[in-house]
Amino acid sequence: MATKQKKRSKKSPPEKPKKAATDLRPEKEEKINLKKLARDERTWKITGAIFILISLFLFISFISYFFTWSDDESQIRNQGISILFDKSVSVKNLLGVLGAATSYFFIKQSFGIASLLICTFFFVVGVNLLFSQKVFSVWRNLRYVIVGVLVICVSMAFVFGNSGFSYGGGVGQMISDWLVRFLGNIGTAALLFIAFLAYVIWQFNPVFKLPKKLQPVGGESNEPGQPEFAITGKTVNDIYAETGKGNSLRARQSFSLSRVQMNKMLATILR
User: Fold this and answer.
1) What is the rounded distance in angstroms from the CA atom of residue 199 to the CA atom of residue 208?
2) Shortest CA distance to 171 belongs to which of 113, 96, 118, 254?
3) What's the number of domains the chain is made of?
4) Alpha-carbon gap, residue 258 to 263, rounded angstroms
C-alpha cells in the first residue's frame, strides 16, 4: 500500500500557483503617428479655433492698449519680459499682463496702429481651417497685410511723429526718419501719398468719375429728336394755339355753322 501511494504521488504533477486578481497584463504603448494626426480633420479644426482665439486676443488687447498705454507703458518698459512673472505688478489692460506686454511689443516697438491688420491674417487662416474650405484667400490677405502694415506705419509715423502716442511704432519711425533724411519732408510726403493711394486702389479698386455738366431747364438739348418737357411761362393750351394744333373738331363745327348761315342768307335774297 505504501509503495502504491508513493507511485501515485510521483505521477501527480505539481500544482501551479494561482494568479492573483491584481496581476494584470501590461498594456501595449500606442505609438503616435504624426502623419495620421496631421491628416486628421479634427486637428485642423482645433488649429483653426486656436487661430481665431489668437486674433480675438490680439484685437482686444490692441484696442485696450489705445486707452491704457499711458499707465502700462512705463511698467513694461522698466521690467521687460520679467513683468509676466512679477505678481506685484498690476496693469489696466483688459487682457492682463500678457495683453499689455503683447500690445507694447506690436504697437510701441513694431508697427503702431497698423498692427491691427495682423489680426485679420489670423482670423482668415482660422476661419478657413475651422470650416475646412476656402472661405477667404489666405495669400491675397497676406499680401494686403504685409504691404498695408508697411505703408500705414510709415505714414502714421511721418504725420504723427511728434505726438506722445506711437502711431507708427518703432519700425515706422525708423523708416520715416530715413526717408526724411533721404528725400526731405516734401519728397517723403509725396511718396507716402502716392503709396497710400496705390494701396487703396490695389485693395478696394474704387471708381473715379468726373461730374457731368448740368443742362439748363429751358435750354436746347444737344441730342436730336428729344422733345422739350419744360417750358416756362406758357401753358399747354397756349402751345397748341401757337402751333395751330388746337381742337380741330371745334374748328370744323364753327366752319359748318357759318356755311349754314350763308345758305340761309342766299335763300332769303333769292325769294
Assistant:
1) 15
2) 113
3) 1
4) 9
How many CB atoms sit inside 10 A of residue 103's CB?
A: 27
pTM across the whole model: 0.65
Per-residue pLDDT for 110 more than 50? yes
Residue in this structure with the C-alpha cell 507511485, named with its chain if needed:
7
Is residue 21, in this structure, part of any structural domain at all? no
- The boundaries of the domain holding residue 56 are 40-204
- Confidence band for 95, pLDDT divided at 50, 70 and 90: very high
Among 123, 103, 121, smallest CA distance to 113 is for 103
pLDDT digits (tens, 9 = 90+) for 207-261: 878 877 766 555 555 555 554 445 455 555 555 556 554 454 444 444 444 566 6
Answer for the pair 155, 179: CB distance below 8 angstroms, yes or no.
no
Closest Cα partner for 101 from 75, 140, 67? 75
Report yes or no on 127 lying in a domain: yes
- Which among 174, 169, 168 is positioned nearest to 155, based on CA atoms? 168
| DSSP track, 137-167 | -HHHHHHHHHHHHHHHHHHHHHHSTTSSS-S
Closest CA to 114 of 67, 178, 157: 157
